Amino acid sequence: MTTSPIPRHSVVIVGGGQAGLSLSHGLKAQGIEHVVFEKHRALHAWSTQRWDNFCLVTPNWQCALPGHPYAGDDPHGFMKKPQIIEYLAAFKASVDAPLREGVAVQQVRPAPGGFLVRSSAGECFAEQVVVASGGYHTPIVPRLAERLPASIRQIHSADYRNADQLPPGKVLVVGSGQSGAQIAEDLHLAGRQVVLAVGDAPRCARFYRGRDVVDWLADMQYYDMPVTQHPLREGVRDNTNHYVTGRDGGRDIDLRRFALEGMDLFGVLQGLDADGDTLRFAPRLAEVLDQADRTYNGINASIDKFIAERGIDAPEGSVYEPVWQPAAERATLSLTESGITAVVWCIGFAPDFGWLDAPVFNGRGHPVHNRGVTAVPGLYFLGLPWLHTWGSGRFSGVARDAAYLAERIAQRRSALGAGGPAREKPTELQLQAALA
């Protein structure tokens, strides 16, 4: 049993990314003592899980972290990886959070008056806990990867940096969400032969009727819509992000045009035959391309309606017409005959909240909350996609969510009294017993 006094904190924040630091900014403004535990280095994902040519897909003006809005000379441009890292480093310095880097949280569980937190640095007590570690923890790689020939180089999108790290030959990119589409483009522009297993991701235009689509949607207040008002409600959290790019000043990603230029498109990857060589795909390539285009045209149509209703002077609208159609659906591909030597898995990440021992998860292991507030008093989430709005997991919306939770945390402290009334404050003996 632990015999030394257990350190106590008003708030423990788990995760030192933009969400955790944004909340630290809010708690400092409220004068609330807290600590931020980060198992790596603060904001590490932006430098360790992005490829060399990575750039934002949202315009720079949407970088609005608390107290640190974008202040450069290109608000409608798209910061590249070095600029993003510089922006975030300045944000970290401005917040000056009580940060404990290299401290991995191993368990959080309710205790009398709050929570016990076990970490690689020891145990502590927290009156309130905020999980700000995001939802992208474990790279998803299907089990069929284990059966691919050892000669094929396999990496996840989290580890992709550039075309040169892959051996000569064709590259199979699996998945066409934001990462998959952009990595396929990166390889394509580098002169590599790409086979793309297209998923169900939607797409949108970069520019339409004289402006960035993001600018139009901001004017239409789409980014202010709470999840409770979205037609899909919480179901929108499962949606794949639209693919588009900010590369070279921003443009559409049109997979059909890539096909005209030599990229080989297939449907969703479904499996590998017993021969260990034949890949199987869902024969739905035309269907998924058509659906992506319907979304593209649907977003543009909503912009057309907004312009017409307000009498806005803007260039004429248009409807996207396919520039390429698959000649036939192909359900199989031989690795050997096609010359594929590498695979880049771009099918996302799975959340891992196994260290959080609290009844706040649904049957799929996803946290249940209302704007980050769970049913367990004093336990919160921050930085998840669509936690409250579209921008909740992005630079554009996390400040609003962090300010809201900082206020809720302050209200709870006030309701319990400064530090909590005697019946709420656990004794050292109670905490030692809970740790036993």
From TrEMBL:
It comes from Pseudorhodoferax soli. This is Putative flavoprotein involved in K+ transport. InterPro entries: Auxin_biosynth/cation_transpt, CHP04046_FMN-dependent, FAD/NAD-bd_sf. The keyword Oxidoreductase applies. GO terms for molecular function: flavin adenine dinucleotide binding; monooxygenase activity. The keyword Ligase does not apply. Keywords: Oxidoreductase. Pfam families: Pyr_redox_3.
